[in-house]
Design brief:
Order of helices and strands: HEEEEEEEEEEEHH
Distance between the termini: 137 Å
Largest sheet: 5 strands, antiparallel
Shape: extended
Number of helices: 3
Radius of gyration: 41 Å
Strand content: 25-35%
Helix content: 25-40%
């Protein structure tokens, strides 16, 4: 029984550690990130070590969707450094119609610390967000006080389990697809409805008039036999 309890305890601890590792990674969230707009995002860095502090974070911006400029909000105790790179080819019509020749390569925060059991958020603002993309990948390197570097750079695949060290992904809210047009003119639709209502009204009028028309077509009702006899006697009296 004691052996069974030990095995169960070890298995439970392993499952708990695995669950903590699965959720305690660098992530990025943003306020209403929509294509073509600017957004405020925050990189959340939890410390998953019990014997060391996080002392440095480096976030690489996506090279396939370059951003010309970012604004970094101050975080007490931390210094942010923005690195840029020259683009292989200028991007025309970027933002408000300008030409982009340099893009943000990375942001590095250092000088502070994230102690065990704590997390820190690093806010940034950037844009415009690209069109036709539902997610932007920001690979991150998390450095601890003992020199260990955790590389959050693995990109998940659809239908596959989450990787052990997933890269932060910013989900972009794509606009809903417009309803399919059937090619019908709106005016034609209105006229069609009016015509349908008129047709139903005419049909109802015909139904109401039909009984009276049938009575007129049939003529006066022939007199009953008794009434006919009385009328004949009256005519004879008049002749006399």
């Amino acid at each position: 029984m004691l052996r069974g309890l030990v095995v169960a305890s070890v298995a439970g601890a392993a499952l708990l550690a695995g669950a903590q590792a699965a959720v305690a990674h660098v992530t990025v969230t943003a306020d209403n990130p929509e294509p073509g707009g600017y957004t405020k995002a925050a990189f959340r860095v939890p410390n998953e070590r019990a014997d060391a502090s996080t002392t440095r974070l480096e976030v690489a911006f996506p090279a396939d969707h370059p951003f010309g400029k970012v604004s970094v909000a101050p975080v007490p105790g931390w210094t942010a450094t923005v690195a840029t790179r020259k683009l292989a080819a200028p991007i025309h019509g970027h933002g408000h119609g300008g030409t982009l020749t340099e893009g943000v390569e990375s942001i590095t925060w250092q000088g502070g610390e994230v102690k065990p059991g704590e997390f820190v958020e690093f806010p940034v603002s950037f844009g415009p967000l690209p069109h036709g993309v539902d997610g932007l990948v920001f690979k991150a390197l998390q450095t601890y006080s003992d020199g260990e570097v955790v590389r959050w750079i693995e990109v998940g695949q659809a239908g596959a389990p989450e990787p052990e060290y997933p890269a932060p992904v910013l989900a972009v809210h794509l606009p809903a697809a417009p309803a399919a047009e059937d090619g019908t003119d709106p005016l034609a639709r209105v006229l069609g409805v009016v015509g349908l209502v008129t047709a139903f009204g005419a049909l109802a009028a015909c139904v109401a008039v039909l009984p009276a028309a049938r009575r007129r077509a049939a003529g006066p009702r022939p007199p009953a036999p008794v009434e006919a006899a009385v009328a004949a006697i009256g005519r004879q009296k008049e002749q006399v």
